[in-house]
């Protein structure tokens, strides 16, 4: 071997070393990227599974509520939409009144037993919500300051009627929304009639607050 050959080997050896280091770095970077992609995919799969399970539970809950209320729903005077039980305000009350009609009390009576069973099996509560249209109250009506107060009193009236018909007071509470959250346009009488309503919806019962830690003696 000549001196020239020795010189070429001396020059080429470091090039292959650098190339090897570069390839090792690229492989390491690729492995890190691959691991990151795998973790992202695992998170996506877990999120998808949680969403599927959530939808399954919601569908089971809807079907159970629909089954429990089969008889009242068949009468056509009660509706069930996305877990909310609706009763037209005209069935329950006269316009601008919170006096419960006899027909309305009869409907509420038919709901008590199936709702008690349903709520008891799931440790849930029943929220009774009152809604009105956006039309101001008639002049001369001195009982209610505005639609919000009217919706609150109607929700309370329905809540008390449910309790009187056998619903445990610990399982039901009232809420008022007035003209907020309309389900139809208030531009027509038909739409306003739809917005004057009472809805009932099962909601999760609040978890009890943890007991305060006792001081060490």
From TrEMBL:
A Pfam family that the UniProt record links to this protein: OmpA
NCBIfam families: PRK09040.1
Name the UniProt record assigns to this protein: OmpA family protein
Stretches assigned to the OmpA-like domain: 80-206
Region (Disordered) location: 182-217
Annotated PANTHER family: LIPOPROTEIN YIAD-RELATED, STATOR ELEMENT OF FLAGELLAR MOTOR COMPLEX
Record keywords, A-Z: Membrane, Transmembrane, Transmembrane helix
Top-rank taxon: Bacteria
Transmembrane segments: 22-46
UniProt keyword DNA-binding, yes or no: no
